[in-house]
Amino acid sequence: MDIKQLRALLAVAETGSVTRAAEALHIVQPAVSRQLKLLEEDVGIALFERGRYGMELTESGEILAQHARRALLELDRARSEIQPSNAQISGIVTVGLLPSTSDLLAGPLLDEVKNQHPAVNLRISVGYAGYLRDWLESGEVDAALLYNPKATPTIQVQPLLEESLCVVGPWSAQLSSDRSIALADLAAWPLILPSAGHGIRNLLEQACPGTGMKLNVVAETNSMNVQKNLVVRGHGYTILPSIAVTEDVARKQLGASPLSDQELQRTIVLALPNTRRIPMAVRAVASLLEREMKLAVERGDWPTARWISD
Q1: In the chain, which stretches have pLDDT less than 50?
Q2: Which CDD domains does the record match to this protein (predicted)?
Q3: Annotation: CATH topology of 91-160+266-307
Q4: Fewer CB within 10 Å, N or C, the chain?
Q5: pTM for the whole thing?
């Protein structure tokens, strides 16, 4: 098993065709076919099968492809870090952003990375906190924004800001910023929430025993956009930070009222891995991300957020 074989595996998996994979790799088609044959002989099992849409990975192929992506990413990172000590900061840095923060932070962060560290290749992944934590621990992201986690043997965290949550409903529900709602008042309300194990859902589940209520969850989705669309269509209400619905409220598509429960605040932290070396490029990008977040709070672009980092 070698790098050429793994690149051929991923190219065919992504294109669904040996011909298109050869074009993407800038080699001839028989060379790709040979690499796949050698790889299948090495692992002793078929990695592809012919499907409706071309070459499709088998279950074993999916497993190998998942590990191959991580291995090649680590090699690319290593290659970019091997440089003279007086060279500019460079490398591949993948940052994980929460869906509610991505619109606010992605553009300014990319601008600053380009301006200050043009040799850094920035990649941005967006996902709920549960996914981001898994990706951080597995090495798929180098740094991530999470909420409310404590430091563990696998990750180190730096609390950055606290943010209140709000009840979000259709515009016709007449929710407003000057009308607060207690969690206990939501007992009979149909709620659309992320699945168990994700940040805001965990906050709500932990607060419920104190109110004696059980959440009336009518739909679960791990997409913030789907959450909001279902609310707009009248399927129920959801719980989100105000930053996630600022534009929707301005367009009169959604309404939002703050939750009055003090414990229902999320603390956003910058998380880095404890189990591997943190390259200079990652530290540089993490510093820029922290700076952009602080500036957003100071400008008033992050409603209900309070900066708590030193």
Answers
A1: none
A2: PBP2_Nac
A3: D-Maltodextrin-Binding Protein; domain 2 (3.40.190)
A4: C
A5: 0.70
